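User: Here's a chain of 140 residues. Predict its fold as tokens.
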Amino acid sequence: MASDNNLEGQIPDQFQESPSLTVLDLSTNHLTGSIPASIASCQKMVTLNLQNNLFTGEIPSAIAMMPTLAILDLSKNSLTGTVPQNFGSSPALEAVNISYNKLEGPLPTSGVLRTINLMTLGAIQASVEAYYHHVLTVMP
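Assistant: Prediction complete.
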């Protein structure tokens, strides 16, 4: 864990060297660049917290394939694009926060996102907000 340490720069793209990593908390720093897709090589990761940084680019779709990922917080960054369609495919996923980014388009309607508490998704800005409100009102 290296949260709230005023770290700067990009995350090194060398996660394939840490396949047993279970928790990565780099929240509340000044990290930039895109989130490396190699994070998905950490097949035992349970918690990924990258909130409150300066990340840009799209959410790597490989994150959705992490089999033990239970908690994902990518909020308060500048992530763009759409939420990947396979997002939420991880069977262990319990909580997701992607709020306060620059994401567009609808949330995926398949996978685990249908069964987890949608309040944990947070309030997504821009055009996603309207869709999110619609999903909350029609979900049983």
